[in-house]
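Researcher: We're teaching a course module on how sequence relates to structure. For the next exercise, students receive a sequence and then see the predicted structure as tokens, so they can try to spot secondary structure elements on their own. Here is the exercise chain.
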Amino acid sequence: MLSVRGLYEHGAVKLDEKVPITAETPVIVTFLEDGEEEETKKINLEDFSFNRAKEILKDYKGSLSDAVIEERRSFQ
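Model: And here is the predicted structure for the students to work with:
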């Protein structure tokens, strides 16, 4: 899967970068709300600490997978 930012203007989508796909390919276009683009940023590996996450979860007694599934269901 490839994600590319762009802009919808006057009935056309203008991509921010060239896409290396030449064949007909299905796509999904998501229209972001105003200001939502700032909220959707890439995760930087330097910002993630495995040890910090391990420390936060040290007292968690349930299944982390179950907790993630439950959290995602709450957004539906």
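Model: If you want an answer key for the exercise: The radius of gyration is 18 Å. The helical segments are 36-39, 50-56, 64-74.
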